[in-house]
Design a protein that fits this description.
Glutaredoxin, alpha/beta, 18% strand
């Protein structure tokens, strides 16, 4: 009886340690200072660097109505904070048409880098089931906030502002 009690206690402790480890790994998604490079619209490799400024990824497709709805909002906020935050538009090109992406960039006068996630590597790691998805990271590459779907201009602005303030 005593051995069963000890074994049960040890099992509970081990399960607790495993649960805490899994929870911490999920909530502290850490990435390197430079992640895998992606190609920009000109075919050049662009590295994503986290340590100089807060960073945000905007996962989008050109055909997504919510992405089109939020594009002017994000562009407006980016123009306001572009010297204080790195923003990368991450297009899932295997779900999109290249001509549509080019038209989208021109139509919304996007000034931040647009990168093509050809093999969905970044999307698999940080994406979500909805578009657009804005993911914010601190200077250590730790995810700090996520906005999924179309949202209000004020919410987008507040999150950019918060990312910049928390970085300083």
């Amino acid at each position: 009886m005593y051995r069963k009690t000890i074994a049960s206690i040890i099992s509970i402790i081990i399960l607790g340690i495993v649960a805490v480890t899994v929870f911490n790994n999920f909530n502290n998604r850490q990435i390197e200072y430079v992640t895998t490079s992606l190609k920009d619209l000109g075919g050049n490799e662009e590295s994503i660097i986290f340590k100089d400024k807060p960073t945000a990824f905007l996962f989008f497709t050109s055909w997504c109505p919510y992405c089109n709805e939020d594009a002017p909002k994000v562009v407006s906020v980016y123009e306001k904070y572009k010297d204080k935050i790195n923003l990368y538009g991450i297009n899932l090109i295997n779900r999109d048409e290249r001509s549509g992406v080019d038209k989208y960039v021109v139509k919304y006068k996007i000034g931040y880098p647009v990168l093509l996630d050809e093999d969905n590597k970044l999307y698999k790691k940080y994406g979500s089931p909805g578009f657009p998805t804005l993911v914010f990271f601190d200077k250590n590459g730790k995810e700090t906030k996520r906005i999924v779907g179309s949202t209000n201009q004020n919410i987008i602005d507040a999150q950019f502002r918060k990312a910049v303030i928390n970085f300083e």
